[in-house]
Specification:
Growth Hormone, Chain: A, globular
């Protein structure tokens, strides 16, 4: 109950902080993944009480971490039906594009997706948001 409200607050706050930063525009930090993440969170309010494999350390094996989030998003799309599935699919395409521009693979032994702990869906979405925020922060020019 409270977890969903906290996640929505976090997502909206982030969205409001990212939008004014014009220097984050395409291609390094597109706004669309944030829009779709917020849309999925809103669509799942009070609906999904499942859990998903959620990487805790977002700095270790970033390409594989992003791939795990992408795979687990498929579970949400499958379980919630076509309306959510379409939004999930579009977010996955954006994550593919973002990942191919920012990260390389082969950073050592990386755990499989199933090796990560299962977390409630709102926490999973919050961690994905954290990953997107970290990506954008790394690309900001220093003042």
């Amino acid at each position: 109950l409270g977890m969903g409200k906290v996640s929505m607050w976090l997502l909206w706050t982030t969205l409001l902080l990212v939008l004014p930063l014009g220097g984050l525009g395409p291609p390094l930090c597109p706004r669309e993944p944030f829009y779709f993440l917020v849309a999925i969170t809103k669509m799942l309010e009070n609906k999904n009480d499942g859990s998903l494999y959620t990487p805790d350390n977002l700095l270790v094996c970033p390409a594989e971490t992003l791939r795990c989030f992408r795979l687990e998003l498929s579970v949400i799309g499958f379980e919630e039906g076509p309306s959510v599935g379409i939004v999930v699919f579009r977010l996955q395409r954006l994550l593919d594009t973002l990942g191919s521009r920012l990260w390389v693979t082969g950073q050592g032994p990386c755990p499989p997706c199933e090796g990560h702990p299962q977390r409630p869906v709102p926490l999973f979405l919050a961690k994905l948001l954290e990953l997107l925020q970290g990506t954008c922060a790394q690309e900001l020019p220093s003042a």
